[in-house]
Write a structure and sequence with these properties.
Blueprint: H1 3-6, H2 14-24, H3 27-43, H4 49-61, E1 67-69, H5 70-81, H6 85-96, E2 103-108, E3 111-119, H7 121-141, H8 147-177, H9 183-189
Antiparallel strand pairs: 1-3, 2-3
Helix pairs in contact: 3-4, 3-7
Length: about 200
């Protein structure tokens, strides 16, 4: 084996594997414990998780108009919460109607078949309150850390977010290149036994 093969970047070194295992160990506390705790803070005792996510999504991606396509809301919530369109429609309707009235759902001016979800003035105030509570929560989390530690952590998280975008692209390419077995092909192959052999 040549030195080039030994140090191939595609084969992690033992140290890299140990770091990966340690990083993966944070999945549960960050994704479930920290993520759910932050969601509870943002919900302010008046919103469901899905509703809070919808408001924050519009705030984050809505730009100057503070609006996003309805299909964007449905696509992301379906992926994140593994729910169908029915509960998403229910969450949007509750945000739209009294007593909340935090969003408006209107026709897209560029497409009569599409809808856009806008934050109302009341919705913007709720999002501002969500941000204030989120800031307090974040400051409490890092209260015992020094400025240098916090900045190093932020640099790390920026790198992780960048890496996530890269990994997503790789996974999308792999899925698009994976061979697909059509229903007709499955019928031609015939039924399989438990061992995976045709009968």
């Amino acid at each position: 084996m040549t030195p080039a093969q030994t140090n191939s970047p595609t084969r992690p070194l033992p140290r890299d594997r140990a770091l990966a295992r340690e990083l993966l160990g944070f999945f549960f506390p960050i994704h479930y414990q920290l993520g759910f705790e932050l969601e509870d803070v943002l919900r302010q005792g008046m919103l469901s998780r899905q509703q809070a996510t919808i408001l924050w999504l519009i705030h984050s991606e809505g730009g100057a108009t503070q609006s996003v396509p309805r299909k964007r809301v449905e696509a992301l919530l379906s992926a994140w919460y593994e729910i169908t369109s029915a509960p998403i429609t229910k969450a949007l309707r509750a945000l739209h109607l009294p007593p909340l009235e935090l969003v408006r759902i209107v026709e897209d001016p560029h497409s009569g078949r599409e809808k856009r979800v806008h934050l109302t003035e009341a919705g913007k105030r709720v999002v501002e309150a969500m941000a204030r509570e989120g800031h307090r929560f974040a400051l409490e989390l890092v209260r015992e850390l020094g400025d240098q530690e916090i900045r190093a952590g932020l640099r790390f998280l920026h790198g992780v977010v960048h890496g996530l975008g890269r990994v997503r692209e790789i996974r999308l390419v792999k899925r698009s290149e994976a061979p697909r077995v059509t229903a007709a092909a499955k019928r031609r192959r015939g039924p399989l036994t438990k061992a995976g052999q045709e009968v």
